[in-house]
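Field log, afternoon session.

UNIT: design team B
ACTIVITY: writing a sequence onto a fixed backbone
BACKBONE:
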């Protein structure tokens, strides 16, 4: 049990004193980059999906 308490104390000490936390400005910039990248990827996937849908409909129209 003593090892577990020591482990918890070491974890707290590391999180409270040794970890470099981002500032609010850095956090907002990172979040904005992730949001923009996610939107760009979603649009690219939507465009590719639409292209492949039309391509498959074109190919299947010859079989009917």
């Amino acid at each position: 049990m003593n090892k577990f308490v020591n482990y918890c104390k070491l974890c707290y000490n590391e999180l409270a004193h040794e970890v470099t936390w981002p500032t609010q400005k850095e956090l907002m910039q990172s979040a904005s980059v992730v949001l923009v990248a996610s939107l760009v990827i979603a649009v690219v996937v939507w465009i590719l999906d639409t292209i492949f849908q039309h391509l498959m409909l074109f190919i299947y129209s010859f079989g009917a």
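LOG NOTE: Residues 23-64 form one domain.
NEXT ACTIVITY: expression trials, pending approval
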